[in-house]
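Weekly structure sync - notes
Attendees: PM, LS, DV (DV joined late)
Agenda: review two folding runs queued last week.

Item 1: First target. Sequence and structure tokens pasted below for the record.
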Amino acid sequence: MTSEHATDVGSGSSVERELAAALTPRRERTRERLLDAAFTVFAHHGIRGASIEAVCEAAGFTRGAFYSNFSSKEELFLALAERAMRQQLASLESIGKELEPDIVRGGCVDHDAIRTILSVVVTDPGDARQWALMRAELELLAMRDPAVGRPFLAQEEMLRTEVGAAIERILADLGLRFTVDQRTAVDLLLSVYESSARSAVVANPTAEDGDAAPDTAVLSGLVNLLVTTAD
């Protein structure tokens, strides 16, 4: 671990306590600015190369403001992943309410509409490059440090369970279903997207965020296999 790792970020950490506690509006704004700054700093420099000072400077705060919200860079990293998960789930629920009920016409599925549903499970394409880099950094950190790996795996399990349930509810409302069990479908879709996102960054290492969005051709083909009518 780095010398700035102040405390364990496992079960019962302040990541979980902060999410459960009622934050004052001012403190919530401070926390969000730190998270926004960390997203950019970590993506550019990696968690090992980025310092708490760099995050604070980018956010316009002191180290005191940082430590009043997070105990370490690692904890901040996990909070970023948690925030992204919550944003994805909120977007998923929102788009499900906007879809037209005639998504199934003559027994045929409108797969473009299904891809629209799935697109919100991943980060905005405008952030595709930065998020792919962040994701890679987080996975490496989780593999190297059990104190990060445990809560990371717990977050992943929660994300995939909640995303799967949300998508299945939307599909059921539209008269659709997965052709395989929910968890297998979600694992396949997210794994294919994440692999494609990494490849896009490797192929275009200097591209702007919007130009680094992954190719969705394989994902589209997978949707065709995994989604069908409920009849």
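Item 2: Second target, run right after the first with the same settings.
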Amino acid sequence: MTELWPYARPGAPAYGEWLLGRAVSPRYVADALATRIGPYRHSLLPMIVHSVLGGLLMLLGPAQLLTAARGRPRAHRLLGVVFAATVYASMAGAGLYLARTAPADAFSGAAFWIVLAVILVGTVFSVTFGVLAAVGGFPDLHQRWMLLCYGFLLTAPLLRLEWGALPWLLPGLPMTDVNQVAIMHLGSVVALGALVASRTLDRRGRLAGAGRTWAPLPVLVAAHLAGAAALARIGYALLVTAGPGRRLLWAYLLPYAVAYAVMAVGARRAGRQGRAWAREEWLLHLTGLCLAPVLSAGSAPLLERGLGLDPYTALVAGVSIGGGVLAFTATTVVSLRVMYAREVLRRAAPAVTAAVSPVGGTVS
């Protein structure tokens, strides 16, 4: 929240820069921020709005979880209104900055700009769907969408943590390259965190009206085969690229493997315990994870032609957005699953009422 003070008033305290300079080196920080003066001053007011309100959202998110956990609906609704309004205002500031900044002028280049834009869209749609779910009487879906929204918001502080941590693992790497490493997995990491939180809070073993699975074995097999082929293509393209391709591939594959293991183990364990709904949600997200590389590989040529990017930058951007986009898609499918189950129960209710009506009553 104080990061932009020096841009508004040169010489103002910069606590984040001070901490980062001592965690890594002052030169590391100075080199990273030297190119930011022009773009940030050009959109200083939107950036201040975005950063200050973004910091506020980091506090409002846990407060929302606390009011929900302690059963305080009035406080939860009031904070929810404030949270949603703050998300829209903060993302409006981010949107103005992105609109005024050419992709090539963004921090770490066009791929980073694309990732920021996708996170912005995902955050806005997630909070919107969360609000609509609450209004529509779907508290379980409201919970999922708001957790996903908060996960997308957490990419900002998590990125700053990686600014300090990754130089210890990759010595000599400038912050622009640290950003490239971070965006390869941040979207997938926060989406996995939101899913684990949702599954932890949802104790239901079954979903009434759910019926057959939406992730049968043929769908799972097809998703795995398509995902494996896309992963092979992505891996080859990054490995044959001179420079940071190998590093970026590991930054992508390791978190991907962890996410896959968590989802696969979660689905298997839920199946053994007879918890059909938990297994269904794990499998739907696992299917989305398998298809994420397909989206990444397929979007790279579109980004290359549509935005005039070089093939390498387009591939990095495509890989960076795949996990987050498919996690959003999987949450959408889960929402449709829940809504469909409720509709099945609603249509079955008249038949049940007629079947149990007293003798002499009208049976329709």
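Discussion on item 2: Residues 133 and 343 are 15 Å apart (CA to CA).
Action: LS to circulate a short write-up before next sync.
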